[in-house]
Design a protein that fits this description.
By secondary structure, this protein is an alpha/beta fold. The chain has helices spanning 34-47, 62-71, 99-113, 132-144, 158-165, 183-186, 189-195, 234-254, 258-267, 282-290, 298-305; strands at 3-5, 12-14, 18-19, 51-53, 79-84, 86-89, 92-95, 118-123, 148-154, 172-176, 199-203. It has a seven-stranded parallel sheet. Strand 8 (118-123), helix 4 and strand 9 form a beta-alpha-beta unit. Bound molecules: NADP nicotinamide-adenine-dinucleotide phosphate.
Amino acid sequence: MLTRRLGSSDFAVGAVGLGCMGMSWAYTPSEQNASESLAVLARAVDLGVTLIDTADMYGPFTNEELVGRGLAGRRDRVTLATKCGNVVADGGITQDGRPEHVREAIDASLRRLRTDVVDLYQLHRVDAAVPLADTWGAMAELVAAGKVRAIGLSEVSVAQLDLAHAIHPVASVQSELSLWTRDPLENGVLAWCEAHDAAFLPFSPLGRGFLTGAVTSAAFDPGDFRSRLPRFTADAMAANATIVDAVRVVAERQDVTPAQVALAWTLAQGDQVIPIPGTKRVRYLEQNAAAADVTLTPGDLADLDAIPSPVGTRY
Ligand SMILES: NC(=O)c1ccc[n+]([C@@H]2O[C@H](COP(=O)([O-])OP(=O)(O)OC[C@H]3O[C@@H](n4cnc5c(N)ncnc54)[C@H](OP(=O)(O)O)[C@@H]3O)[C@@H](O)[C@H]2O)c1
């Protein structure tokens, strides 16, 4: 696996990472399977898929526990990323960016992850009720305390990045980026990462599965998060099928899968980009890892860049 450097940090990670959310949360709950997920984590390490992403809110908490189990005996071979700041309560998600919450959250994550240090600790969302400087300052203190090696942000603006970076270097930004969600290309965040030597970690790089062509019905499992998303209504999916068709054309030309095209497109957006596709299946993991070797031609990229905007907002 080709490697990329995680921002200005010392970590060289596989160019394609692994998002672990779906192993315990959000998608096809009826197909979650701990033993297959543990196999995915083991195989990821062997393939060089070494950036492993989780969060305390996935489950909540159970995803970190699963990742901790899966990485037992392998911890020193991966770059382990988790997040704080989103809290699941009463069936909803709220933000808690208070410094005291950050300090409690890291200790709980370390326990669940069975480690004494998190390589990349990310603020899942900014809490509008707490100055970002306070939350970020508390996260910076965790670096000084040796509990965390680097800190990053998720779904932030350029102004928030500037504010945070003046306090402590931003190692990474994690935001949605894919063939059907190009906001970071347009709002300056990807360019900010390039200019400030920060990694950019596209989340949902496969469009929550849609861009692979494997999601064809809006009849989701009860509890599947996509049933609440505007892009996954039956009408929106029918309209957005043209996007998948365009991805398929490039995939056939390259003799690869649509998922690999979707990931290769994110990798082509800059050397600082490290996508973290999510899967709970070894065969998808292997396919996604191999996307690091796919080189899209200028013609492929032009065709993919011409894909129209999707029907439906992303949330
Ligand atoms: N910071 C944030 O706010 C935020 C938000 C969302 C996600 N994330 C992170 O980003 C990671 C990835 O995003 P995501 O999981 O939302 O979406 P994604 O990576 O775009 O898509 C995941 C979906 O695609 C399917 N899939 C994966 N590889 C495939 C392949 N090769 N062929 C066909 N289908 C495939 C998965 O199926 P199976 O589940 O059946 O394997 C799953 O349903 C998450 O795991 C999480 O770590 C962060």
